[in-house]
């Protein structure tokens, strides 16, 4: 398949690497020529790293790079293009403008896919002369490693398009999940709980980013905490998604955005891609301080104070049970023992 990717930022270059490595010819374009040059260089370095780690042969690396075609003009004619994947900034007007130009440049047989993470696919498609040709195809960063892709049919999407996109995704080694065209789709909607609550804890000075991230890793079993994840994804992207989902659900209070993210975005603290977000990156960056070692007598009992309402009693019992299951001696009563 011949695929054109418009937008050569973090997502666009990741999608390009993924598709070219799977055997597809990929045209990579951006309104900034230097972005395409940088993206091609980045993909080459990632493939070189894969060769060094024994995950790819040198011949496969060379073949993948040969299938990556830099374009000087995103709106160039492309009679052989079968699929366009848009990966520009998360803004409805920008995406509508991109697809409007592509609709004039490419054949009507080309399928359009938007990598939007939270905007309405139906609203983007409605700006086209033929809204039936567009669907959502939402990847996650870093694309080659995050092996799930959301396929999002719009209200007018032709029924055969989601099936075709699913076949493409799974043929390239990722898992495709068809989801409803609702705010945040599936993954970002579910993930709002983690990020929104983490930001609320920081707003209220309950703990700092490093402590919250550590608890998320240790207790929830996550590979990275919410602040580490925001730095990886980009705070500019996170802020836009948080606002979009909040607006899409008609300003539900449980989804209320934090004032912390837009402040950092305005300050240019976008995360890894700018060298600093919640943490600092690059040469000389110390990263979060290690957690101090726990000291004290591990054999001492824990006193669980009485009180609270009848409704809270089951929670106290559950807490005591969890502590005892972990080997902790639990004391209950009027007051703690001398131990």
SSE topology sketch:
Blueprint: E1 2-6, H1 10-21, E2 25-29, H2 33-52, H3 58-66, E3 68-70, E4 83-86, H4 92-105, E5 111-114, H5 121-125, E6 134-138, E7 148-153, H6 160-171, E8 175-178, H7 187-203, H8 209-220, H9 226-233, H10 235-248, H11 260-266, E9 302-304, H12 313-325, E10 330-332
Parallel strand pairs: 1-2, 1-4, 2-3, 4-5, 5-6, 7-8, 9-10
Antiparallel strand pairs: 6-7
Structure description:
By secondary structure, this protein is an alpha/beta fold. It has 3 domains: 2-178, Rossmann fold; 187-274, N-(1-d-carboxylethyl)-l-norvaline Dehydrogenase, domain 2 (Orthogonal Bundle), CATH 1.10.1040.50; 302-332, no CATH class. The chain has 12 helices and 10 strands. The chain has helices spanning 10-21, 33-52, 58-66, 92-105, 121-125, 160-171, 187-203, 209-220, 226-233, 235-248, 260-266, 313-325; strands spanning 2-6, 25-29, 68-70, 83-86, 111-114, 134-138, 148-153, 175-178, 302-304, 330-332. The strands form 2 sheets. An 8-stranded mixed sheet has the order 3-2-1-4-5-6-7-8, sandwiched between helices. A two-stranded parallel ribbon has the order 9-10. Helix 4 links the parallel strand 4 and strand 5 (111-114). The longest helix has 20 residues, at 33-52. The radius of gyration is 24 Å and the shape is elongated. The model has no long low-confidence stretch (mean pLDDT 93).
């Amino acid at each position: 398949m011949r695929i054109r990717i418009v937008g050569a930022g973090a997502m666009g270059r990741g999608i390009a690497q993924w598709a070219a490595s799977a055997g597809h010819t990929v045209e990579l374009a951006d309104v900034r020529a230097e972005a395409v040059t940088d993206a091609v260089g980045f993909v080459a370095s990632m493939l070189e790293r894969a060769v060094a780690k024994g995950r790819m042969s040198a011949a496969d690396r060379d073949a993948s790079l040969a299938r990556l075609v830099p374009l000087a003009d995103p709106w160039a004619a492309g009679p052989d293009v079968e699929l366009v994947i848009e990966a520009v900034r998360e803004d409805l007007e920008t995406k509508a403008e991109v697809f409007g130009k592509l609709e004039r440049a490419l054949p009507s047989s080309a399928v359009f896919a938007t990598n939007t993470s939270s905007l309405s696919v139906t609203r983007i498609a409605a700006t086209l002369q033929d809204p039936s040709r567009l669907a959502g195809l939402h990847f996650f960063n870093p694309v080659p490693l995050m092996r799930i892709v959301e396929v999002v049919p719009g209200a007018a999407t032709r029924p055969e398009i989601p099936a075709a996109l699913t076949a493409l995704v799974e043929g390239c080694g990722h898992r495709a999940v068809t989801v409803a065209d609702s705010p945040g789709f599936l993954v970002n909607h579910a993930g709002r709980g983690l990020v929104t609550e983490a930001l609320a804890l920081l707003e209220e000075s309950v703990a700092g980013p490093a402590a919250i991230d550590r608890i998320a890793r240790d207790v929830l079993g996550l590979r990275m905490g919410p602040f580490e994840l925001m730095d990886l994804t980009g705070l500019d992207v996170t802020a836009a998604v948080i606002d979009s989902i909040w607006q899409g659900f008609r300003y539900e209070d449980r989804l209320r955005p934090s004032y912390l993210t837009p402040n950092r975005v305005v300050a240019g603290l976008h995360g890894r891609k700018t060298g600093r977000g919640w943490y600092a990156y690059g040469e000389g960056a110390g990263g979060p301080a290690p957690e101090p070692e726990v000291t004290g007598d591990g054999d001492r009992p824990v006193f669980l104070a009485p009180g609270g309402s009848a409704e809270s009693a089951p929670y106290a019992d559950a807490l005591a049970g969890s502590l005892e299951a972990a080997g902790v001696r639990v004391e209950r009563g009027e007051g703690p023992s001398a131990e």
